[in-house]
Design a protein that fits this description.
Layout (H helix, E strand, L loop, with lengths): L10 E4 L5 E4 L3 E6 L4 E8 L7 E3 L6 E4 L3 E6 L4 E7 L8 E9 L2 E7 L9 E6 L10 E8 L2 H4 L10 H13 L3 E8 L2 H9 L6 E3 L13 H6 L7 H6 L10 H9 L7 E13 H4 L10 H10 L12 H11 L5 E2 L4 E2 L4 H13 L15 E5 L4 H9 L7 E4 L10 E10 L6 H8 L5 H6 L8 H14 L5 H12 L3 E2 L4 H16 L4 H19 L1
Parallel strand pairs: 12-13, 12-14, 20-21
Antiparallel strand pairs: 1-2, 2-3, 3-4, 5-6, 6-7, 7-8, 9-10, 10-11, 14-20, 15-18, 15-19, 15-20, 16-17
Length: 528
Amino acid sequence: GEVPGDSSMHEICQDRDGRVYIYDDTQVYTVDWEHHALVEALFPVNWDEHPVLPGGGPYDFLLSSGSVLKGVSLESGTVTEILQWADCDLVESAGTVVCVDENTFLVSVWDLLSGDSNNQLLRLRRVPAEQIPEKTVIRMAATLSQEQAEYMSKADAVDQILMMAINRFNRGSSEYRVELETFSGATELGMMLAAGDIPDLIDWNNYGRFINDPVSMEALAGRGYLLDLEPLIDEDPELSAGDLLPGLFTAAKSRTGGLHAVPISIYPQFLQGRTEYVSEYAGGGAWTVSDLLEAARAMPEDMSLIPYMTQQEALSYFLECAMPAFVDTDGGTCDFENQTFYDLLTLCRDYCPAETGENYEPGDSLLIGDSIMGRLGQFASETLRTDGQSGWSLMPFPNTGGSPFVYAVYDELSVCAYGAHPEGAWQFLRTLLTYDYQYNSRGMMPVRIDAMNAREDLYLEVNGSCTAEESQAVRTMILNSTALRSRDMTVVNMILEEASPFFAGDKNAEQVAAILQSRVSIYLAEMG
């Protein structure tokens, strides 16, 4: 029969006794089959907990997500967390789960890191704690806000591929075991460090940029909490700095005067401009915010600067891509009292909406910002091939010295200088820089040159949507890129806060710059 609502969102599931129910992406319902109606919502289902599996033992249903297995009892009306896959050191991505008994599960898995698409069936059995070999625990800390902790497990605080790498390391190492823990932000992490409760590793993942209390890697490095990892790479028998993207690691070191955080995966960001307004700056040459402001003044009144971005969002976007133009974290200096910064404030105020809701199609904007999330060859065939011919031209980001791309870091890790086991922390971290991990960590772009080339060679062979010359042109652009998107949201948030009165018309650019010059100078001095 028919089911009310969007039928594409409904699926059938069974409990342990074979009774049939229907669920969507929010609830599991009993069904009145005679009248074709949903009757009662039994329990909620999160979007990532599909499918709802038949249960066993004390559970009517099992809910399996990428990080947690839960059991549902209809009699008591409870949903209970049975286990977190990370605690079982499952290398693979868990799929279908069958409950054999209260202590045994059959789990269908897929090992993403090996590149093997074949599923395997594992028997997961609960054993007494005394049967588990003792290992030295390496503590990895990652950001998980208090709001996120209400609906996410600790394993969700890191990327799934990184979590699999942790589990793979744990199963393969006879000496160490990496255990994940979380902190809600800078305040909680600062209290931990002050109390001597220092983790061995810190994961600076992309999620941490968006919390209300962001942690500054630069500040911790300035205060001596983080090791310089370049000597460890130089001393490693299997790793070499020459294996890694040169511009990326030069930029990473320039933040703090050393390699205090190692980028593991990245997504290059690029900018396109309407050719008729920016043609003199196209082709990879350096241009400035002031040049961009001049181009914006020449565009029609009904055209926006960049789609979907408010004044605050555009200011953050350009600041993060060109932070070294204003702040030298390593040198401990800043310079906001200059025409470039005044022009940046003016650009965002005059050519971006104050509030969301005024969305523009890309054709109605001067610029389009985008990222390479897949293969470079896809970028070559879809963007590079039409450069300048479709009315759009590839542009460097303003005040980045003409770098073809800006590297946005998806994941990077630090080793804490005062952690209990820095040697064990490095033993894990180095595995993330190996060819095998870099080649097989799907989604984001590798930071190793050989892994990048191998993946692009395979794309060229299998897909063939771009030529070898186009593929090589993009690889050359990547190797010539030297700009790194800032992740020090402490400074960015200061600037956004002080820019608000300027956008509202209550202060001029010079007044805002003077306040920032003082605030950021004090912050840099406090960093060390």
